[in-house]
Amino acid sequence: MSVQERKQRERAERERLIVATARELAEQQGWDAVTTRRLAERIEYSQPVLYSHFRGKREIIGAVALQGAAELATAVRTATSAADGTRARVAALARAYLDFAVRNPAVYDALFQLDGGLAYAQEDTPEPLKDAFAALLETLDEVTGEGVDPGLFTEVFWAALHGLATLTRAGRLLPEDAGPRVELLVDRLAVT
Amino acid sequence: MSVQERKQRERAERERLIVATARELAEQQGWDAVTTRRLAERIEYSQPVLYSHFRGKREIIGAVALQGAAELATAVRTATSAADGTRARVAALARAYLDFAVRNPAVYDALFQLDGGLAYAQEDTPEPLKDAFAALLETLDEVTGEGVDPGLFTEVFWAALHGLATLTRAGRLLPEDAGPRVELLVDRLAVT
DNA sequence: GAAGCGATCCTAGCACTGCTAGACAATCGA
DNA sequence: TCGATTGTCTAGCAGTGCTAGGATCGCTTC
């Protein structure tokens, strides 16, 4: 049995290598540069090997997205837990979220921009995605305000952050005023 | 000279046909289905003809985007001018914007999601894009609040709308609660 | 230790993409 | 009517995601 176990281990290791390499390549040169040929070459296997691990490129993007969701949740929780006071916590959340988008553009794309074949806002939504949303909700729950559903409020707040992140990165908004924009958003949306 | 004029007219007409066909095809089957071959076939010319009008596919997307920007501006202005009262005007703006995104997904993508080779938030930004932003600013100026730059406020409000539009359309938010989300956004962001 | 068998991987190829060079034909001015 | 110019098309390039089929390797059994 140990032979099979070793093989399984090696297979899992190679799968990790594929995802890590795809992510690395995407962060370096954008997702357009992540072709199956280039990816195969980098992991030093032939193209079809990729398809023995994933159904296709889409699923590879999905794998990167799940990894990113977990990291995003961690980043948000770390930032909020280090902040004192309600207002500061929400501001920290917003900054951490936008910071993540700036620092990991390819991962952010995989999560929210590209089609990774993942289910969102449904029962069969993968746990990391649900948890990332939960990480936002934990802090935003405090500032939802009376008579408003915390889930709904979180969605709106998240959408605003997402809008800022994507429009800035696509050159639709100049990055210079990013700071004041976040301050304005927090001051207005959050009830403290 | 009239011969040349006729030719110019015919050329311009064909260019309109290309843009209109690209838009139609994109709305029907998504931008992925808009290949240069399919597009050429639909306008009943060969592929290279496209390249005598546009540098490439990107520029065709850009042309659709400019068309969309003008329509978006009109839609927003029509909606706001029909509303009575500040609060109602802002709500009408938000609904008109989101409605435009839902009704013209491909055009919305061309404007804010895809690369149409256009300059945004700069001096050489095409007029229709500037004007679409101006259409938002005209109404949002009223509810900016003291001590806040109207341009900055418009950017934030716009980003929030953009976030709602894209996340909803990408399946990240369920469309059911679209109404309450807009109400919440307007109530919180706008100072009335 | 050898033989057979199954899992694993690669070569080669399909149908498609955006884009372009060069041949060809139609139209214009002289 | 002739030459030149403009316009259009055919054919092809390099690249894409993905897959069928054969070859090779390593494990298991005798």
UniProtKB/TrEMBL annotation, chains A, B:
The keyword NADP does not apply. Residues 12-72 form the HTH tetR-type domain. Keywords: DNA-binding, Transcription, Transcription regulation. It comes from Streptomyces capoamus. This is TetR family transcriptional regulator. The keyword Flavoprotein does not apply. It comes from the Bacteria. Gene3D superfamilies: Homeodomain-like, Tetracycline Repressor, domain 2. GO terms for molecular function: DNA-binding transcription factor activity; transcription cis-regulatory region binding. Residues 35-54 bind DNA.
